[in-house]
Amino acid sequence: MEFTTGLKEFDDRFGEAFQPGTLMVIVGHPGSGKTSLALQLCNANAKIGHKCLYLSFQEDKEKLYRHARKLGFDLEEFERKGLFKHVRLPIMALVDDLIKELSAILSSDSYSIIVVDSINALLEPVKNRDEQRMILQNYFYEVSRTIKGIMILLAEIPLGEERVNLGSIEFVSDAVIILKHYVVRGLLNRIMEIRKLRGASLKAVEYPFEIVEGVGIRVFPPPTPERIFLGDGTPLKESLSLTREVIPRLLKGEVVFFTYDPFARSALPIILIFDYLVSNEMTAYFTSYVYSKDEVLDSIVKALTDYAGVSLEDAHKLVEKYLVIESVNPAGEALTSLYSRSILELEKFRPNFIIFHGIEVFSKLFDDKEYFNALVNELIWTRNHGVTNMRFGSCTPRDFCEMNASLSDVIVQVRFIEKDGKIIPIIQSWRRGTEPRTIELNEEVLNKLRSEFKVLLEKAFTSK
Ligand SMILES: Nc1ncnc2c1ncn2[C@@H]1O[C@H](COP(=O)(O)OP(=O)(O)OP(=O)(O)O)[C@@H](O)[C@H]1O
Ligand SMILES: [Mg+2]
């Protein structure tokens, strides 16, 4: 039976390198996630019938099981089924004794995954370390071959040290994974580096990851296929003339940037979004990076009542039916966790549209390169999944705004002008390959919008 990496994103990429007879080393600082990753490997492989033996020196069973439970793994259940066994080994000064003990345990059952947590603990009391290490290393190497399974050694890098001092185990092992974490703005970023993997082509080697309660470890690789394609390229239906005029033929999975002056921000384009949602019977996931949920709700309702002539009650009903609103403080999270949060939420809610509001805050929070790297990946992800991506942000700072614009298929800008003593919104839009458009929201346009929106509302409340 085949093995799994325990990470669905890795099975496609690296699954093939995960052959029977693999010696794998997972290296990292204290708290970097070594135990979590090893438990996940056991859990995922136990699920497909592989027996896992977990050898530890420091952690007792109770603690390990609790750790696993928090990650959503039920080790008790696997233990009952004979698919998981935890053994706490005493610390021994002689490698020979240790090998005897290990051999006895191994011969008592047929395990196909073995975890040693950790080799540091194991080597700690040993004299003549280099020589003994060689003996142990050969032993583990042999074991990985004889069990025709995966032997996983966890190795700790002491705090304050950066060098991985594994000796020659790096050379004999088939896979070396390094778990790193670094702090930006006081926030933890976790990175998994595949340092070595026999039998796999390594292009990207660093993967942001998160340890998620009840889920375990999730890695967030750059999206595949690496080629960018456009969802299924289906045009979205629209019912309002305004939508049709502002955005000619929006396709599923495209990116729209709604932008405005920082002094005159407008929620007006939300009307166009509701047109798409109702006309296509789709839902949207809305995340604001600047306002609370209530404030977002207020401004959406206000745009619907002010411009589209919707009653307060109907505006609330519309939001209720078509939007999930979330508000996130981006200063409270690392870029990798923001990125992973988006992806996890997309997977959970499976919306057809994803809407981000207040994206200008990213200009000062994250390093430009890092931000655009994550952004490009996210846009490819949504494109490839046919999720239409709508981004609201004030056009500031200019270079940041232009960069966002350059990554969008359609740019829609709302401005205000004064005409005959009245303030009138002007919508300007640009779509790749078409001429820019300007629409003035004068009385005539607004009246038409309101009467068309009535029809849209009926559709909204009669559809299921
Ligand atoms: N259920 C969970 N949900 C979220 N984060 C978790 C969860 N469990 C663990 N973590 C995070 O993962 C970190 C490290 O986990 P883990 O014990 O796997 O690391 P480790 O490398 O084995 O550490 P050590 O060197 O202490 O053995 C914890 O400090 C915690 O921040
Ligand atoms: Mg540990």
Properties at a glance:
Rossmann fold, about 475 residues, alpha/beta, 8-stranded mixed sheet, 9-stranded mixed sheet
Question: What is the topology?
Answer:
Elements: H1 8-14, E1 22-28, H2 34-47, E2 52-56, H3 61-70, H4 75-80, E3 84-88, H5 95-107, E4 113-117, H6 119-123, H7 129-146, E5 150-156, H8 169-172, E6 175-184, E7 187-197, E8 206-212, E9 216-219, H9 241-246, E10 255-260, H10 270-280, E11 284-288, H11 293-306, H12 312-322, E12 323-327, H13 335-349, E13 353-357, H14 362-365, H15 368-384, E14 388-394, H16 398-406, E15 410-419, E16 422-431, E17 437-440, H17 443-462
Parallel strand pairs: 1-5, 1-6, 2-3, 2-4, 4-5, 10-14, 10-15, 11-12, 11-13, 13-14
Antiparallel strand pairs: 6-7, 7-8, 8-9, 15-16, 16-17
Bound molecules: adenosine-5'-triphosphate and magnesium ion (MG).
Adenosine-5'-triphosphate (ATP) is lined by residues 28, 30-36, 70-71, 156, 211, 213.
Describe the protein.
This protein has helices spanning 8-14, 34-47, 61-70, 75-80, 95-107, 119-123, 129-146, 169-172, 241-246, 270-280, 293-306, 312-322, 335-349, 362-365, 368-384, 398-406, 443-462, and strands spanning 22-28, 52-56, 84-88, 113-117, 150-156, 175-184, 187-197, 206-212, 216-219, 255-260, 284-288, 323-327, 353-357, 388-394, 410-419, 422-431, 437-440. The protein is of the alpha/beta class and 464 residues long. It has two domains: 8-219, P-loop containing nucleotide triphosphate hydrolases (Rossmann fold, 3-Layer(aba) Sandwich), CATH 3.40.50; 241-462, P-loop containing nucleotide triphosphate hydrolases (Rossmann fold). The strands form two sheets. Strands 3-2-4-5-1-6-7-8-9 form a nine-stranded mixed beta sheet, sandwiched between helices. An eight-stranded mixed beta sheet has the order 12-11-13-14-10-15-16-17, sandwiched between helices. Strand 8 (206-212) and strand 9 (216-219) form a beta hairpin. The mean pLDDT is 90. The structure holds adenosine-5'-triphosphate and magnesium ion (MG). Magnesium ion binds at residues 34-35, 117. Adenosine-5'-triphosphate (ATP) binds next to helix 2.
